[in-house]
Amino acid sequence: MEPPSNILDKIRKLLRLADRSRGATENEAKVALSKAQELMTRHNIDSVLFRMEHGEAGSPSFKVDKGKVDLPKTLNPADFQILSILQKHFNVRCILTHTKSATPVDIIGAPADIDVAIYAFNFLRTTFFRCWNEFKAGIPGADRKAYYKGLHDGICEVLNEAKRRAEESYASKHRNAYALVIVDQNAAITHYVDTNYGKLRTKTSRATKMNSSYFAGAAKGRTIQVNQPLSC
Q1: Which of 25, 42, 83, 151 could disulfide-link 217, Cβ–Cβ 3.0 to 4.6 Å?
Q2: How many CB atoms lie within 10 A of CB 202?
Q3: Helix 144-167 crosses helix 26-53 at what angle (to 10 degrees)?
Q4: What is the model's pTM?
């Protein structure tokens, strides 16, 4: 099994290939991002199987750590959608804190997951803004919040499919073992959050308008293929 640093380097290279601002075609971007998604899923499963083969349990060897990204004091609607993607697809929990001048975000999870999630966050944020700027230029009265929500939903559809493909390449007993370890990891993250942050407020989001901006965002999101970052 390759060291996590080698896996991360491969993912970064794939994401650079998927960056259309560097000249990649849309098809090249889709292929590169799909491979990045499946690579991370396979790496996580292989790590679990490696520990099992060496007689190690899943949760005792799971180390919870904390990383951080810094956001402006006033958040962009894209930020909430991107943090949601991280929590759904990167095995991390995102905790927003506040200061007088900024909004630091603590990223809680395994060290390797934090590393990839932070890289993904920065890549996604740049891409969300670029996609929106391109879309609104040709659409008078475009709805920013609806477009970002559509991007989120379209990307999540693709990520779920990429994960499914990767997981189904393993025998059912290995998939079941991996699922149990993920449950243990989530419990460890929850315990860490409860211990270090106490009771947290959960932000409830308003219903998104299902308008033309939303459907345009969802269609774009489905072409982006991620589990990390995205490409416009």
Answers
A1: 151
A2: 5
A3: 50
A4: 0.77
